[in-house]
TrEMBL record:
UniProt-listed Gene3D superfamilies: Periplasmic binding protein-like II (3.40.190.10)
Protein name: Nitrate ABC transporter substrate-binding protein
PANTHER family cross-referenced by the UniProt entry: ALIPHATIC SULFONATES-BINDING PROTEIN-RELATED (PTHR30024)
Keyword Signal tagged: yes
Protein's organism: Streptomyces xinghaiensis
Amino acid sequence: MNCTLRRRTALRRVATATVAVALGLSLSACGGIDRAVAEDGGPVSVKVGIIPIIDVAPLYLGVEQGFFEEENLEVEMESGQGGAAIVPGVLSEQYQFGFSNTASLLLSVSKGQGLQAVAAGAATTGESGEDFGAVVVPEDSRIKDAADLEGKRVAVNTLQNINTLTINQAVRAGGGDPSTIEYVELPFPDIAPAVAAGDVDAGQVVEPFVTVAEQQGNRQVTSNFAAADPLLMVGLYFTSDRYAQQHPEVVAAFTRAMEKSLAHARRDPEKARAILDEYTDIAPEVQKNIVLPDWPEKIGIGSVKRLALLMAKDGITESPPDTAKLLP
């Protein structure tokens, strides 16, 4: 049967749940794109577990622009108590989707947890001194570059994770020995004050804390994300293997909407900056100066594999996590 005729025939049917499914199958057979459809024929409600940080601005922007509505998705963003709480929330289907840094997801996969990346999240800008993550020191510090971090006390928000991995790689690339660094775990808001007080020699922060630290008189010594990989995929959106298997049409719809959202944020970063008002409390004088992440439309597979190698090199895992289990 002619594909156009089949589309017209299907579209004239009553929009019950059964017919909606039949319509989706008909369109797929002709090369069309299925939207997500709930059992009652209406939109599908999904919860996304997020941390209210600048990385997720494209998600909020995409909801505002109607990209998820176009895919018949009703999206509710729910703040988790840190990335560590989002993974179990997705596995239990408290959330259908989540956002987390890439290293945390690789670590979960290495432990046998069934997770699947569904969309890019945030990436380094790749520009030294102009990235959304950096290691900062007092202006008068004798630390001048990444190699000088050797043997120093460095504050990070989480031990043995993406920030220590990338700092270590930056130190190696500069000719230093990262095994001599003493890492100290502190929440992001406490890192710049600890640096200023001399409790630590340096601290790794992300925006808006990079800008805050610089406004307080500190300076950057390395953009650790960019130094580790100029295309580093810092964060990803993900779901559980089980949800992906049971609801492939919803996952596909979420991915399409998220890719539109990322592309829109990349084309118009000032819209992404403006939407931070909707879900953060960043002061206006800070917000206008922060460096935004890059938001590539597709997942940078090569950088995910590089992170997996660094995890084994640093002893976080015995061998590189199997990226094929995480990547679509």
